[in-house]
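Many introductory courses stop at the sequence. We go one step further.
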Amino acid sequence: MASSSLSSRGSGSNWTPRQNKLFEEALAKYDRDTPDRWLNIAREVGGGKTAEEVRRHYEFLEQDVQSIENGQVAIPNYRTTGGSRS
C-alpha cells in the first residue's frame, strides 16, 4: 500500500511526500554496488532518517511491489464520471 505520507507499516516511521521523492532520486543515484548506500541515501533524504530506517523503507516497498505483482492487491474499481464524447 503505497501512499504519499507512507506511515509505512514495515519501515516504522513517517515519510513525507518530499522525503519519498528524495528517496526515489537517491535510489537512482546510489545503486546496489555503492559503498555505504543506505547511509548516503539517508543523508539525501534528511529529516533525521537513519541508514537503517532507509533500508527498512526500501524493503517494505519491495514487499509492497511484490504483493502487487503477485496479484495479492486488488485493483481498485475506478468509476468514470460523465459520458463519452465523440
